[in-house]
Specification:
- 21% of the residues lie in helices and 22% in strands.
- The chain is α/β, with parallel strands linked by helices and 279 residues long.
- Strand 7, helix 5 and strand 8 form a beta-alpha-beta unit.
- Helix 3 packs parallel to helix 4.
- The chain starts with a strand and ends in a 7-residue tail after the last strand.
């Protein structure tokens, strides 16, 4: 296992120096799940929102091939994620996640953290709607693509090559923390859940979206959803300083031609009490 500062990447996908905060990169041992992977939602970067259960590196949840929904759940290292991305020209649709758009529209823009950003669609959408975005992903190949997407859209994003638990994120610094379809491994200490909560600023919003999984179907594809953090695990840790604004199972619109395997999402949106940060 190696440790060091991961470069933040500029809009060209190249190392831009430490523009923000340092991040710690840990190379998982072979066969070990990274603690945060992206599941299909249409963003780029860290690997926390792609698969039907929340693993992988960001993408559009609405239109991924059936196999892609599940193969991210079997012990993937950052190198393996890079290999997957390198194998095809584009993994995700390039559209922002529908749940993100519906839940964030109307919020006052501020600083946003996109956990598991994949190829960057969510991050770019947020910037174009006034947010200052930091986006995480373990795959540098995904981040390179995300940076190109952002450049083409005229969006400035701080890209961080690290997973949620490896990134030394400033505490209570983000007005929005978004984790779309994350594949966050459960730990005895609730590390991933607590990291998400700790990143939200007073007055800020936590948004977690996941597929409403069929456990038998998931197990048939070789993984146990109980190994991964679900929105209910996060909501169980919300104390008096939080107000749950949305906690529901919601029908998910699937575009024409997409795999309609998952038709429902679990959406959790919570606001942290306190006066919003002013910058």
């Amino acid at each position: 296992m190696t440790t060091g500062e991961a470069p933040l990447l500029d809009g060209r996908g190249t190392a831009a120096g430490l523009l923000c905060h340092p991040v710690l990169v840990t190379d998982p041992t072979p066969g070990q799940h990274p603690d945060d992977r992206a599941c299909v939602d249409g963003s780029a970067g860290a690997s926390a929102k792609h698969c039907a259960d929340g693993s992988g590196s960001g993408a559009e949840a609405d239109d991924h091939p059936a196999a892609a929904e599940h193969h991210h759940l079997v012990g993937d290292s950052a190198a393996e994620w890079d290999q997957r991305y390198a194998g095809v020209e584009q993994v995700w649709s390039g559209r922002p996640n529908a749940a993100l758009v519906s839940e964030v529209t109307g919020l006052e823009p501020g600083r946003a953290l996109d956990v598991g950003c994949g190829e960057g669609a969510d991050a770019v959408w947020l910037v174009l709607h006034g947010w200052q975005v930091t986006a995480l992903d373990v795959s540098r190949v995904a981040l390179d693509r995300a940076a190109i997407h952002a450049r083409d859209a005229g969006a400035q994003v701080v890209w961080v090559a690290a997973g949620l638990l490896d990134a030394q994120l400033p505490a209570a610094a983000f007005d929005l923390v978004s984790a779309q379809y994350p594949a966050l491994r459960r730990t005895r200490g609730n590390d991933a859940e607590l990291a998400l909560l700790a990143a939200v600023a007073p007055g800020g919003t936590l948004l977690v979206v996941h597929h409403a999984l069929d456990v038998e179907q998931a197990e048939a594809h070789g993984f146990d959803p109980a190994d991964y953090v679900a929105p209910s695990d996060i909501s169980a840790l919300l104390g008096a300083e939080w107000e749950v604004e949305v906690d529901e199972i919601r029908a998910r619109a699937v575009p024409a031609g997409a795999v309609a395997r998952h038709t429902q999402d679990v959406v959790l949106r919570a606001r942290r009490h306190g006066r919003p940060l002013r910058r």
